[in-house]
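Annotated sample (chain length 315).
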Amino acid sequence: MIGGLYSELEAFEAILQHGSFTAAARQLQVTPGAITRRLNTLEARLGAKLLNRSTRRLSLTESGRHYYAEVAPALAQILAAGERVHDLSAQPRGELRVSVPMNFGRMYVIPHLPAFLDRYPGISLDVQFDDRFVDLIGAGFDAAIRIGALSDSRLVARRIAETRRILVASPDYLHRRGAPAAPADLIDHDCLHYTLFRDTPTWEFQRDREPLRVPVRGRLKANYGVPLVDAALRGGGILQTATFAVARELASGELVEVMPDWCLLPIGIYAVYPGREYRPRKVEAFIDFLEETIGRPAVWDRVIAGDGGAVSRGG
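Output written by the structure step:
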């Protein structure tokens, strides 16, 4: 009876944590049908309905809320104890589902993953590329890399590196159009705007701790940074971007920094994972590896300084 109740509670917890029967089944490595049977058995055991099910969403019933409030702390301790005991006797293992930004992931994560898999032969990786902040819990991800401000309070974040926003342009463009000396001069320039930084074409600067927002204009904007870097390389305008995205081009002189005396806000790069009492070793191993390979001083800063750490933009 105890073993059966444990599996039922484990299924109930997984459904609530991941938001669907399918995601819960993926996490527990069983079929969605098995998750349904375990929940039905638990509800029959209690004589009460715990979840409202519809084709669109799941929600706790009043009985479900009361029951979960009572059992959640004890269940979390039981699950954490089981994971700790398992980890004491085993290397990190299992499938690790990770969400990474498209360009950053291609340039700075994927090149290191063969070495990670060599180090941890018990881990397999499912890496999904998306520049938007996906719902880690609802989509069943174990971890993600996120760049910029964090807002999801259900996640635990660890800062692994930092990058700067800078303005860059090709020497050819600056020769033809002149170099702006102050933010107000940007009104006379073609500005290449990355819409995921800010939807409206407004760039924010800081000098002597005073913020300054400047509207800019240009005929090319995109929600993906690679084509904007390509446009800047071809003399298409001034681009606001992160140093990690143009490290090779800055090091080679194909792009140069514009208005270096004017600061743009730095950007934190974080590894995030769903908040829980115990972090699985596969997640801990992955985050430690990221900090080791990417972290401070960041690999792109070493490239710009000419200290190695080759970066390829690829195709």
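Annotation: The radius of gyration is 24 Å.
Annotation: The mean pLDDT is 84.
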